[in-house]
Amino acid sequence: MKKYLKILRECPLFSGIEEENLLRMLTCLGARVESFDKKYTVIAEGNPAKYIGIVLTGSVQIVRIDYFGNRSILSEIYPSELFGEAFACAEVDAIPVTVIANEPSEIMLIECAHILHTCENNCGFHQQLIFNLMKDLATKTILFHQKMEITSKRSTREKLMTYLMMYAKKVNASRFEIPFDRQELADYLEVDRSGLSAEISKLRREGILESEKNTFELL
User: Fold this and answer.
1) Quick one: pLDDT band at residue 122, thresholds 50, 70, 90?
2) Strands 98-101 and 60-65, how do they pair?
């Protein structure tokens, strides 16, 4: 576990917890680390929601797949970030999304019950963990509403421009690289890939943006 300390110190779940207590805490929580190849399913839709995941290396995608097999990317999770916490806290019987490794990844899994319920040792860090978890859930709620603002737009053009303007504001730059390839961007915006490509070409002709692969510039 020691080799992951730098990443774990950046994880919002462990904010305010001293490094010397961190390893002892992970043992108390029953944390384990698993490795996943690219495109491997970390948590499958329909499984009981028990675990909170922390990305240590690589990245994962949270995806929703409908009855007809259409895929929507809800979010991408990078090193030191959490996933699955909302479903685990709610103790839902079947998680409604799938978590997939976007590249070879190492993931720390912690049973949520070990965080929400104090152990027999009555460790003092549980109060801080619960506070951190609630703060993270509040932050994720804000991000969820931002995603809803994008996907609620009526046209592919509106969805794309809303996303790009939000991303430009986030990175404070007019030229930036997004974390999606063209198919993944279509899945995130919940639009058809060919329609998205056509709209990007149209926006380029109109002088509104420039693009090359996953790099965009708002003009």
Assistant:
1) low
2) antiparallel
136: its two tokens = 């993270």
Q: Which helix (H) or strand (E) holds 175?
A: strand 175-177
With contact defined as beta carbons under 8 Å apart, do 136 and 12 qualify? Answer: yes
Q: Enter the CATH code of domain 153-218.
A: 1.10.10.10
Does the pTM exceed 0.85? no
For residue 68, the surrounding DSSP H or E stretch is none
C-alpha to C-alpha distance for 176 and 186, rounded to whole angstroms: 18
Distance (Å, whole) CA 131 – CA 129:
5
The pairing of beta strand 105-111 with beta strand 215-218: unpaired
Query: Per CATH, is 2-140 categorized as 2.60.120.10?
Result: yes
Mean pLDDT along residues 151-158: 90
